[in-house]
Amino acid sequence: MVFTVIIAHPERCRKLAAEKRIFEDMYDNGCLMQIDAASIIGVNGWGARLFAKEIIRSHKAAFVASDAHDPEDYSKYYVEAYKRVQKWVGRDAAEGLFGKNAQKIIECISGCIENVTATP
Ligand SMILES: [Fe+2]
């Protein structure tokens, strides 16, 4: 059995922002990075926004998610975050980050994980 680890909102972890080699080690070892949509628009602070942008622009993010601890999280930040990401990396990569990559996980749990990456 193979496991793939998905790191939820690494951009919000100060330790990872301060010591990028830890982030890079996780990425290089196959962890998939999921960015919180709220971070993209600055809700989680300037540092999280900068790190989110860096991860996305370096094409090391696999997903953008709502971090839905509250039903409002789904709608509150998503559209603005999508527009921002589209400016950073283009429409194709944004579509991957906001849906297509997650859809790949759902459709082929056993066979497609290695194919889930942001489109450069
Ligand atoms: Fe969370």
Topology:
Layout: E1 6-8, H1 14-18, H2 20-28, E2 32-36, H3 37-40, H4 46-57, E3 61-65, H5 73-76, H6 78-89, H7 91-107
Parallel strand pairs: 1-2, 2-3
Helix pairs in contact: 6-7
This protein binds fe (ii) ion.
Fe (ii) ion (FE2) binds at residues 8-9, 67.
Strand-residue fraction? 5-15%
User: Which structural class is indicated by helix and strand composition?
Assistant: mainly alpha
Using only C-alpha atoms, the radius of gyration works out to 13 Å
Supply the CATH architecture. Answer: Alpha-Beta Barrel
Report the helical percentage: 40-55%
> What compounds are bound to the protein?
fe (ii) ion
Characterize the quaternary organization of these chains: single chain
Which fold name corresponds to the CATH topology?
A: TIM Barrel
Span of the ends, CA to CA:
29 Å
Number of strands: 3
Q: Spell the H/E element sequence.
A: EHHEHHEHHH
Strand numbers in spatial order across the main sheet: 1-2-3
Shape: globular
Q: What do we call the CATH homologous superfamily? A: Metal-dependent hydrolases
